Amino acid sequence: MSTGAEVIRQVKSRIDEVDPSEVREATAMGNGDAPVLIDVRESEEYETSHIPGARHVPRGFLESRIEGAAPDRSQRVVLYCASGNRSALAADTLSTLMGYENVESMTGGITLWKDRGYEVEVPRSLTREQRERYSRHLLVPEVGLEGQQKLLDAKVLLLGAGGLGSPTALYLAAAGVGRLGIVDDDVVDLSNLQRQVIHTTDRIGVAKVDSAEEAMKAINPDVEVVKYQTRLDASNIMEIIDGYDVIVDGVDNFPTRYLLNDATVRLRIPVVSASILGFDGQLSVFAPYDGPCYRCLYPVPPPAELAPSCGANGVLGVLPGTMGLLQATEVVKLIIGAGEPMIGRLLLYEALGATFTELKVRRDPDCPICSRPPEEISDDEMGVFPDYEAFCAAAG
Amino acid sequence: MATIKIPPVLRPSVGGEKEVQAKGDDVATVLQALAEQHPATRSQLFSSDGELNRYVNVYLNDEDVRVLGGLTTAVGESDTLVILPAMAGGG
Asked: Which of A16, A244, A372, B40 has the most CB within a 10 Å radius?
């Protein structure tokens, strides 16, 4: 029977080891040739400090989670732990049992790395309660501790606590977005409750911002809710939206959508935009100067008779749920920097046929707003479109 | 015949259909054929001088015809045209 020390010695004799200096050099290149660096220690150890850029796969979850961190078995993978023993055992598992072709264990672990004076990252830690609350995020490699910290630091503004705003507000609060602003001047009405799930029957008559705050706080007391019980207009928009990282547009009229577009281009704030009518929904992300803006997609609004509001025409109650949650998903992706956001793409959802259609949206080189530098867009131009007065009069 | 996807606001003008078929070799003739089959769509698609209204976006499959050849963009038998006016409902 072998002792533990003997097992480790045998394993080390058949795996490849690499010196911290070489790991530092290879990871510093920061290009496609850099190895995948994996910290196999326990969560508490990783959270105390780790090597910058290292992914975290605790040895106890090695087999089940390694493919999330290193899907390509031919890629160079470097494992480390505290002193080089656990990473050696993990490297042995990856090469002998899982077919990884190019695995190394870093000699001396993070202890030697630190002794050499190399840089480590000391992440801000979550409280015990937060670790539990966000545990399912922490388990997803694309979110993880780093992504959750970004969510906790994020500031998102929701325009409207109505059909689209309801699910978005609830899920973003649940996800731990640190500050959620809500703009809405309305009060809860009985006819809202068929779809505006953030409100309740016993809050009919209550300001929507107050009702929404109550629901969001009930889900997650961590979230700071900033209430704006007002209508967004040219006089207040720059003040309200400044400082937010992402804006979620669920407003019910064109003048505000154009105004919002122009102000967000000026301040370079991305907008996750959706609209709904009947059984149809549209969704896109407008990221100023990275992709098209709302005016690139819709240079002029349709006449009022072709732009009915939901109030006049009705909407399937679950549809804002579907579209609002697609918005919430895009918001989270923008914050954590994962995936491919819907920039330059327009999604059409038709609920009766259960069809999704995706269209390309191009930047308009002649766009009256985003073809110019933001500092050239004046207050007088914001929210302007042809026949503005006539449009608003006709729309009532 | 090309397939045309009809947006919600135009469906009452085509008998409630979500998709209709129309003949034509390019975007202009397909949309003209649509307007002939369903006259109520004409004023919504075209201005009085016969130009496509600026508030109507038209896509050939997934690409905006404005970045292709506009109304003269060729349309094949198996192509889909998507008519898309802006929507502003927030529910």
From this structure: A244
Which one has a higher pLDDT value, A202 or B50? A202
ipTM of the complex: 0.93
Contact at CB, A275 and B8, closer than 8 angstroms? no
A164 neighbors A274 (Cβ within 8 angstroms): yes
Verify whether the Cβ–Cβ distance B62 to A358 is below 8 Å: yes
Domains and CATH numbers, chain A: 4-123 (3.40.250.10), 154-395 (3.40.50.720)
Strand partners, A156: A180, A246
What letter does residue B27 receive in the DSSP assignment?
Answer: H
List the catalytic residue out of A81, A293, A296, A310. A310
Q: Which of A193, A251, A280 to mutate to test the interface with B (most CBs of B within 10 A)?
A: A280
Residues of B in contact with A308 (CB under 8 A): 9, 89
Q: Say yes or no for a CB contact (<8 Å) between A307 and B62.
A: no
Question: In this model, does residue A389 exceed pLDDT 80?
Answer: no
Reply yes or no on whether A81 is catalytic: no
Residues 6 or more apart from A79 whose CB is under 8 A from it? A38, A39, A40, A87, A90, A91, A94, A103, A104, A105, A106
Query: DSSP 3-state helix, strand, coil percentages of chain B (rounded to 5)?
Result: 30, 25, 40
The angle that helices A208-219 and A165-175 make with each other, rounded to 10 degrees, is 30
In A, minimum Cα distance to B82 occurs at: A359
Q: CA-CA distance, B57 to B59, in Å (whole number)?
A: 7
What predicted TM-score, i.e. pTM, was given to this entire model? 0.77
Verify whether the Cβ–Cβ distance B90 to A275 is below 8 Å.
yes
Neighbours of B45 (CB within 10 A): 20
Q: Would you say residue A169 has pLDDT above 60?
A: yes
- List of residues 6+ apart from A7 with CB closer than 8 A: none
Question: What is the DSSP code (8-state) at residue B48?
Answer: T
Residue of A160, A252, A299 with shortest CB distance to B54: A299
| Closest residue to B64, CB basis, from A163, A306, A362 | A362
CA distance A338 to A347: 19
Give the domains, in start order, of chain B with CATH numbers: 2-85 (3.10.20.30)
Give per-residue pLDDT as tens, A310-325. 566 788 999 999 999 9
Give, as one character, the DSSP assignment of residue B6.
Answer: P
